[in-house]
Amino acid sequence: MTRILKKISIAAFIVAILGTLYYLLSLQYPFHWNVVPMDYLKMYYLGLMMTLKISLMSIVFSFVIGVIGGIMKVSKSETLRDLAGVYVTFFRNIPLLVVILLVYYGVGTIFDFPRFWAAVIALSTFEGAYMIEIIRAGIQSIPKEQFETAEALGLSARERFFDIILPQAFRNALPSLTGQFISLIKDSSLASVIAINELTQRGTQVATMALASFESYITIAAIYFSLTYTLSLISSKLERRLAIP
Amino acid sequence: MSVISAKNVKKRFGELEVLKSVSLEVNKGEVVVLMGPSGTGKSTFLRTLNFLEIPDEGEIIFDDIKMKDDAVILRQARSRMAFVSQSYNLFPHMTALKNVMYPLVKVKKMEKNEAKEKAVEVLKRVGLGDKISNYPGQLSGGQKQRVAIARAIAMQPDLILFDEPTSALDPEMTAEVLKVMKELADMGTTMIVVTHEVNFAREAADRIVFMSEGIIVEDSQPQEFFSYPKTEKAVKFLARLS
């Protein structure tokens, strides 16, 4: 109980600071909350849907990249390990914004795919690099006796991996994975630079149309927060449900 | 008839020669206890028998199988040669029942219902009939080892290898695990046990194999080994144990 009280008081403190800032700003800037977001709800709704679409697809693809790359990273073959290693190093040392621009203007020009796919490809490949490291760490967190016991029982390599190692690795990796999913959702806002009509882009459009930037950006901040915070709540519930007694 | 026979098995880890030509033959129904100071290659030798460690030289013949590093051969051999190690034997994400059932279904290709019946039966036999739906995390160390033993006997193996099965347990739990092992020995199970438990060795073993510095130094009956050790090394080892 005291822990919840503590959390509430910290939250209250932060709200107080933000409230003060808001008050100071309102002395110089006339807020028109009745216009934004109220008159533009459809815009935000469309933006949110696009953000969800891009994020969900990228989560799926980056997770697949993560599992494949993570397995490669712990494989016996040096070539596979190095291949995954180079991939991770490459994407972890380039800013996502640059990856998005390169995919859109570079690869997108060669293969001529719509900007939506450029965003999904850029996000998936970039976040995939982080997923690889998370899955690798998850697999390596399993004691080596588990691999041995499974081997000594006469289980095939496939059974060992999919029935014994992966379920345990996945549980251990779950908190970091959700953290990465949340990052991905927030990072998807960068897709606005290639004029994808996702939440941030819509927010900017409303800000310009209604001449109400603060109202609009505060609105999208609130939407992002509710989205990612809900996800982290769901995730901790899932963690508790999947926890091994 | 010999269940397993190892001939001139050698193994080195880098510079360290752990096994310097070890040969051993174990007959059906025999209980062999491997003893010796730590770091003399007992565990390594045991692990070469089921190819968890692949020997550098020598050959291992189990039943009619000549062991080699080949997935099909190893799967076949291991399905009839159980292994119980020190700890982390059980899969933490499976209940006790599932831990026993799983290899029966996957490796022995048993029907699910049949596997379940068998699993319940062996878990009862090791005194854990009331714990079948517990996860390993909800069991004591001794109970976990008994589940591991239950899983081993459910496979109806021709040979069970025990690698210091009680060394991670406190005395009370050690006793409950040794009791189950003693029962197995009395039932005529062929086993090779690496252990420091003198009482178990005295009561359950048919042969004591004493290893030192990567070779077998003595191979005799328990009474003879404990009362009249032939070598200086065994005398020293026994003096330190008591």
Strand order of the largest sheet of chain B: 6-7-8-3-9-10
Overall 3D form of chain A: globular
| CATH architecture term of the largest domain in chain B | 3-Layer(aba) Sandwich
Give the SSE order of chain B as H and E letters: EEEHEEHEHHHEHEHEEHH
Biggest β-sheet of chain A, characterized?
none
- Structural class, from secondary structure content of chain B? alpha/beta
CATH class of the largest domain in chain B: Alpha Beta
Averaged pLDDT of chain B: 93
State the CATH topology of the largest domain in chain B: Rossmann fold
The major sheet of chain B is characterized as: 6 strands, mixed
Structural account:
The complex is a heterodimer of chains A (245) and B (242). Chain A has helices at 2-28, 41-73, 78-92, 96-111, 115-140, 144-152, 157-187, 199-210, 213-242. Chain A has 245 residues and is mainly α. Chain A has 2 domains: 1-30; 37-242, Orthogonal Bundle (MetI-like fold). In chain A, helix 2 packs across helix 5 (115-140). The mean pLDDT of chain A is 93. Chain B has 242 residues and is of the alpha/beta class. Chain B folds into 2 domains: 2-80 and 159-241, Rossmann fold (3-Layer(aba) Sandwich); 91-156, no CATH class. Chain B contains 9 helices and 10 strands. Chain B has helices spanning 42-49, 71-78, 96-106, 112-125, 141-154, 171-186, 198-204, 222-227, 232-241; strands spanning 2-13, 16-27, 31-35, 57-62, 65-66, 81-84, 159-163, 191-194, 207-212, 215-220. In chain B, the strands form 2 sheets. A 6-stranded mixed sheet of chain B has the order 6-7-8-3-9-10, sandwiched between helices. In chain B, strands 2-1-4-5 form a 4-stranded antiparallel sheet, covered by helices on one side. In chain B, helix 6 links the parallel strand 7 and strand 8. Chain B is globular, with a radius of gyration of 18 Å. The model of chain B has no long low-confidence stretch (mean pLDDT 93).
List keywords for this structure.
heterodimer, A: 245 residues, mainly alpha, MetI-like fold, 2 domains, globular, B: 242 residues, alpha/beta, Rossmann fold, six-stranded mixed β-sheet, four-stranded antiparallel β-sheet, 9 helices, 26% strand
